[in-house]
Amino acid sequence: MMSKLVPVVGNMCKPNLGITNNKLAARMFEEIDVIVNSAANTKFHERYDVSPNINTQGPFRVLCFALRCKKLRLFLHVSTAYVNGERQGVVMEKPFFMGQSIAGEKRTTTTSGTDDLQASSLPQLDVHAEIKLASQMAQDLAKDELERGMRELGLNRARMFGWQDTYVFTKAMGEMMISSYKRHIPVAIIRPSIIESTYREPFPGWIQGNRMLDPLIICYGKGLLPGYLADPEARIDIVPLDMVVNTMVSVMAKHGSQFDSNVNVYQISSSVINPLEIGEMLRFLCDYYKRYPLKDSKGHDVSIEGIKFFSSLAEFSAYIQHEVSEKMGLGEEAASSNPKTLSKIHVTCKRTVESLVYMAKLFQPYAFYKGWFYNGNTQKLMMEMSPNELEAFPLDLHSINWKHYFVNIHVQGLKRHVLRGGGSMLEEEKRLSFL
After folding, report:
1. 167 counts as catalytic
2. Which of 48, 167, 199, 220 is catalytic?
3. pTM score, two decimals?
4. What span, in angstroms and rounded, lies between the C-alpha atoms of 149 and 144?
């Protein structure tokens, strides 16, 4: 395998991907068959001058490079199922066209009569204008306002056009750039939902770092999260990493061997074919942690109860403030404690509450999400594969038993690869308290 790999240093934020060696670039233009673009900035509330540069302009720069590749058979772009923004119900596998907005779709389907005037007043999404706006605002803002101002700008622009955060908004605009400027290049876009640890390969439970759900799972197991801001009946759409990779390989095999001028979209998702509710997932975790508790910093078992759900951020914040204060011994009897010790406890309590509230607020749009991602193209792909191919590259999300996955695979992987020690309160775990 190593004899077939040729690493090339590049930068998708620069023209020609930052490749200045003309001889190397010429060789790449002659030899490349397939390009896979999986680079992204995944911070939900990233600065609006940073996120579009990577998630919107980045794919366009890679596409420009691809257009110069003489033998290119496929441009495979890795997006996210959540580019569907605030769409509700069953969401189909359709590409975006330039200027399309979720808010515009919602206005078109819900307005009539005199409301048509209001619908027409919605600003038209212009991707190039958004990029210019971000650049101009970054120059105009004072240095001490730049960080906060650019984050707020991204979030405001995303929500105005019908997306829940800057990440999915800029990823959607990246798809628009690809669909609009691809010319003759065959394009496939895959949209995984929430990617978590592997189901089978290279071994069950393999994971690197904290994925989207993992701070919630770990904080709950450590007794730091007795309540959560979520709809327990909302579907949480999860896909194991290896099934995402298997789908990518299968899509490359199919579309790399036949020319197709269409933009083919594959949503790698479970919310339609094998739905899992947030409340159900947390019941699995509760049962597990009661049988196999994590350890606190003193080596004692952490006791947890069933989680309480909140629909209001204010109610959740007040509840968490009270619960964390009680857990850290800040009741009435704390007044007699050593002032220096008490001050440290107050600081720790404040930081913990702020982190938990921040996490809840960050994930709030996903904890109340009303869209379910149809994966018909992936199902069709499976039907076209032979039994041997399906055995080598399993894609069937319908076959997953979610309780088995969380209890026997995912939590075990977190303990082994993230907490580094079967659930003890190590340095890695302490860091997670403050996210």
Report:
1. yes
2. 167
3. 0.90
4. 9
